[in-house]
Design a protein that fits this description.
Chain lengths: ~300, ~625
């Protein structure tokens, strides 16, 4: 499928490119958060376009919780090698030493320590003053409220009640020392836009999005894939091979699979068009507590 | 067709749908968020998990007595749901068979007007909601005015809660008539009134049986069909340079988004500010070179010649150039708690250029209720004004009415980095005459500094014969001896020249002082210390002269001599003539003198030598830092 020059996706593409160029031109030390999922794949593809024939003038940063699917890590390493990009991987070693994990520590503490804290460590370590994230406004209601250029204070916190006005395509990029800005170039994309764009541009994505027989257990109403030996089965649980796929990707113990036979992009999009639940429904971390995404964002989560 | 073919056909159809960006605005509690929730719900665009969460939230925070509270769908912040209000703009996305929509749900509280403006800046249509029970409110007017300022030309007047006024046609018609009268000067191309009930869905998706008198379209039908084509591609070519792309020595490209018109390889282009010209060599993209690109495209342009271009430059077609100036007028929407200060330096961002700028004069403030122009010295949070802006370097721009992207700007506070204002350029006040601009403007401060002093006015007031001119002359002699630069304006010398057409009626006395005040202002602008020696009997005229100048520049010197003493001195024999009736309107005899209430300096001449009084004034000038 080729896109016409005036199409909706071309408009979204141009807006994202504009945003990325603003950041490259106005910040001292930007970075692109790369989470390996489909939105990150689209964001990376747009960055390759924005600066062509140069490579993107910033590194990628993956905050590795050490609980990502193995296929994600493989895909990540292949991608950066193929594109010739600089990838930084940060792991919260303190959290690892404390033995924080999603099974025993609970999803909330695990996410707090291995994602949010870890991200803040990495941003401080390298002194990044701007960080791209692939979040979209259609994903979740607190994200629908966030600016494209989202100001964070020196402790990385978001103040939703006092956001900078953001008019036209004029972004205020001024910050004081120690402060930073999170930038969301995909703010105005919807889930359908992302998939259509992946189809139109033939963008590689992690194979976990496609249906395949995978070993899963059903736990608390969610299908969890047994990705490695660290997943301890409870009494009565037994890993069974089921034809499943993932609508979003995160830490494997916290990401629910769905029963699906969709093994092509067309089938995935068809399935999505008839879906009656949102994509983040499979994400256990969103429903920890009320307004939980907003709370995490105030603490510095993307 | 096979299933994949069907899907591709469906997706192609999705792709070719047009996009409408609109906002909902109006006063608090008029039902903006509820309306958006209703649109999403009725177009079956809500996921089951979102619906389940909504039902749960409605029981907890809802304001609809256990029914689904659609506002909770869009009020995504915890504080919003707890308080039942909208604080910040929320963006929602939905599509129908005919169109895609991005809707900005904006807050109704005056306090959050800047967030409403954020939502309006990228919208093509505004739904202005009105509570049928309350009618047109201040916020309705404020939002309508701001929407029009930001260039929105299409408005839907949604008269909501029509169920609560028994679906009354009269109520509807009255509100529409009142709104039309208010909105007439706002220049909307379309104004479509629709009676709705967001809570129950009347006239939202489909025509309602409860309003048989209403013959127009349902809201969604109107949104699907309204023509808002902004035709950016037919405007003059404009591209602000964002980033210079230099992967190697052989490639130098200028990356940016085209914000007006179109460009082809071979087109002659000009760098607006420097006036340098070249031709477009290539239009480079990741997907291959383009022969032509148009408004909305993000591209990289290479030129046939080596031209000095950097971020902040605006590229244009040589035949259709933007204005370049450092003085222009603009509408300002003030968005900070801290008031606007004329003369303070802010950062102005227009296109990709950021330059220091000041609001040189606030011409007026706009009353959002009546659209009247009011005199004002400053703008407070959420106020709109019209001002002269002066930038420290020339900027390239188009009037906002011609191009939103090259005519809209923001002001940023240099210390807090807050975005304090949005501006819409009206027109340039003078063209930049030279392309090589001097970084330093020659202004009052610079002129005064070159003379080693601060500019000021010493305004001597007092009765005829009180000793004003004697003391003023002595002060000027002392300042001159110290190497300071001065000028003396004396009642007699001015009345023989500049003001010889004026007599001594009250009106002429006022005009006399007005002219002297303006003349002093010019000398102050030249960096001089001005000594004005005028009877200037009226307080209001002395205040007028004071207000022509900046705080600290005007020093009132009250030469306080009793009238008996003046009459005894009578150096020009005027009192004798006045008492004899030969002079009319003589101050102190048949015309009043209003002594100053708070003069900076008061001189008691009786019993003190004029030389000592002059020294007293020189000391005051030193203490105030006017002279070293």
């Amino acid at each position: 499928m080729t896109l016409s020059a005036t199409s909706h996706l071309r408009r979204l593409e141009a807006e994202s490119i504009h945003i990325m160029r603003e950041v490259a031109a106005e910040f001292r030390n930007p970075v692109m958060l790369y989470s390996i999922g489909k939105d990150s794949s689209v964001m990376l593809h747009l960055a390759m376009k924005a600066f062509y024939p140069s490579l993107p003038p910033f590194p990628l940063l993956h905050v590795d919780t050490t609980w990502k699917f193995r296929e994600m890590i493989r895909f990540r390493d292949e991608t950066v090698k193929k594109l010739g990009l600089n990838l930084l991987v940060h792991i919260n070693e303190d959290g690892v030493r404390r033995g924080i994990n999603p099974f025993d520590s609970g999803s909330s503490l695990h996410t707090q320590v291995m994602k949010t804290e870890s991200l803040k460590q990495a941003l401080d370590k390298y002194g990044f003053d701007a960080a791209f994230g692939g979040a979209r406004r259609d994903e979740e209601k607190s994200r629908a409220k966030e600016r494209i250029f989202s100001f964070r204070n020196a402790s990385h916190a978001w103040d939703p009640k006092n956001q900078r006005p953001e008019l036209w395509n004029l972004y205020n990029t001024r910050i004081a020392k120690g402060e930073s800005i999170r930038v969301f170039p995909l703010s105005n994309w919807t889930e359908l836009d992302i998939w259509q764009y992946i189809m139109a541009e033939d963008i590689p994505i992690v194979p976990l999005y496609y249906a395949k027989e995978r070993p899963v257990v059903e736990r608390d109403g969610t299908l969890i894939m047994v990705d490695d030996e660290r997943m301890k089965l409870r009494d009565g649980e037994e890993a069974q091979m089921r034809l499943v796929r993932f609508r979003t990707l995160g830490c494997y113990p916290l990401t629910g699979a769905i029963d699906s036979g969709a093994d092509t992009l067309e089938a995935i999009v068809s399935e999505m068009l008839t879906a009656r639940t949102s994509e983040r429904q499979g994400r256990l971390i969103d429903s920890d507590e009320k307004a939980s995404m907003e709370k995490k964002k105030k603490e510095g989560y993307f | 067709m096979t299933a994949p073919e069907q899907l591709r056909a469906y997706l192609a159809e999705q792709e070719n749908k047009s996009l409408l960006r609109f906002l909902t605005c109006g006063s608090v509690d008029d039902g903006k968020s509820t309306l958006i929730g209703r649109l999403l719900y009725d177009s079956k665009l809500l996921f089951e998990d979102h619906l389940a969460a909504l039902e749960k939230d409605s029981k907890k925070h809802g304001t609809t007595g256990g029914d689904i509270d659609f506002a909770l769908l869009v009020d995504g912040l915890e504080a919003e749901r707890e308080q039942g209000i909208t604080i910040d703009v929320a963006y929602r996305f939905f599509a129908t068979d005919k169109r895609k929509f991005i809707v900005a749900d904006t807050p109704g509280h005056e306090q959050y007007t800047r967030n409403m403006a954020t939502g309006a800046s990228n919208s093509d249509l505004a739904i202005v909601l009105i509570d049928a029970r309350k009618g047109v409110l201040t916020q309705t007017r404020r939002h309508s005015y701001i929407a029009s300022l930001l260039g929105i030309r299409h408005v839907v007047l949604a008269v909501n809660k029509i169920d609560l006024v028994d679906f009354s046609e009269t109520v509807f018609n009255d509100i529409v008539a009142e709104y039309r009268e208010f909105a007439a000067p706002l220049g909307f191309t379309t104004l479509t009134p629709i009676p709705i009930s967001a809570r129950f869905g009347d006239n939202v998706i489909a025509p309602s049986a409860s309003t048989p008198w209403y013959k127009g379209p349902a809201l969604l039908t109107h949104l699907e069909t309204v023509d808002v084509d902004t035709a950016r591609a037919h405007k003059p070519f404009r591209m602000p340079v964002q980033w210079v792309n230099r992967p190697n020595l052989d490639f130098r490209g200028f990356a940016g988004t085209i914000v007006g018109g179109r460009v082809r390889a071979g087109d002659p282009i000009v760098v607006a500010k420097s006036g340098r010209t070249s031709t477009v060599k290539r239009i480079v993209t990741f997907d291959g070179d383009l022969q032509e690109a148009s408004a909305g495209d993000a591209v990289t342009i290479t030129l046939a010649d080596e031209v000095d271009i950097s971020r902040g430059d605006l590229l244009a077609h040589t035949a259709e150039r933007p204005e370049v100036t450092d003085q222009f007028t603009a509408h300002l929407l003030w968005m900070a708690e801290e008031e606007m200060l004329p003369g303070r330096q802010y950062l102005l961002k227009v296109g990709t250029a950021t330059v220091p700028a000041t609001v040189s004069t606030l011409k007026h403030r706009v009353d959002v209720n009546t659209l009247d122009h009011l005199a004002a010295k400053t703008l407070h949070l959420n106020e709109v004004g019209y001002a002269n802006i002066s930038s420290s370097q020339p900027i390239a721009f188009d009037p906002y009415a011609e191009n939103r992207e090259t005519g809209g700007f923001i002001l940023i506070d240099r210390f807090t980095n807050a975005t304090v204002a949005a501006g819409m350029i009206d027109f340039g006040l003078r063209r930049a005459t030279n392309v090589h601009w001097q970084a330093l403007d020659v202004n009052k401060q610079v002129r005064a500094e070159a003379k080693g002093q601060k500019a000021a006015v010493l305004w001597f007031t007092g009765l005829s014969g009180s000793g004003k001119s004697t003391v003023a002359n002595l002060v000027e002699q002392r300042l001159f001896a110290m190497g300071r630069h001065t000028y003396l304006l004396d009642g007699d010398n001015v009345r023989h020249g500049l003001n010889r057409d004026l007599g001594f009626t009250d009106a002429d006395r006022v005009e006399n002082i007005r002219r002297v005040g303006e003349a002093s202002k010019l000398f102050v602008d030249a960096g001089l210390i001005v000594l004005v020696s005028f009877i200037s009997p009226f307080r209001s005229e002395r205040r007028m002269a004071r207000e022509l100048l900046e705080p600290g520049e005007f020093l009132e010197v009250f030469v306080d001599t009793p009238i008996e003493e003046c009459m005894a001195r009578d150096p020009k024999g005027l009192y004798i003539k006045a008492k004899a009736g030969q002079i009319k309107n003589f101050t102190g005899i048949d015309s009043p003198y209003e002594p100053p209430e708070a003069a900076e300096i008061t001189l008691k001449t009786v019993g003190t030598k004029p030389e000592d009084l002059a020294d007293q004034i020189v000391e005051t000038l030193k203490a105030r830092g006017i002279i070293p």
